[in-house]
Amino acid sequence: xxxxxxxxxxxxxxxxxxxxxxxxxxxxxxxxxxxxxxxxxxxxxxxxxxxxxxxxxxxxxxxxxxxxxxxxxxxxxxxxxxxxxxxxxxxxxxxxxxxxxxxxxxxxxxxxxxxxxxxxxxxxxxxxxxxxxxxxxxxxxxxxxxxxxxxxxxxxxxxxxxxxxxxxxxxxxxxxxxxxxxxxxxxxxxxxxxxxxxxxxxx
Length: 203
Hints:
The chain has helices at residues 3-14, 18-30, 32-44, 47-55, 57-63, 65-87, 101-116, 119-128, 140-168, 170-174, 177-199.
């Protein structure tokens, strides 16, 4: 593992995206425990993309317009659904003082779906990971798997930090209905913008 890989990965991970937005929204509405579950779900959503990059399935998404467009529009629709849920005070921005095991499971599944429905991630890993594999590497797939696991660990750590930091100010936020209203609008707008960005994405 190179320092260059870690630094580049951290820049990519820390950049605002759907996973960061979802983790922050969950932390502010439901607290630290739920934000950790959100971070875990978003991290799990990376697994299929790394597997796709290793197996060459990402190349299919890159060359097949139909496959790429189908997965892309499912992702767009899901992000718009997330925006609608935020405005209706449901989903990630539903204030819940008693976070149950069942609701944590739903939080993980939502985070997983947010990432798995973004075809750009598979293509990203197909282009990103090989840059850090030397030409003479004896086991390139194992090396790619190692880098993928490191990327996942960094993702989980960064998202947990985001979530726990947001959870610390949660009590001040949820005690002010006007602030929560504007936050819901802001997060809904964020999901819409990310959905629009994905809709405009090309292979």
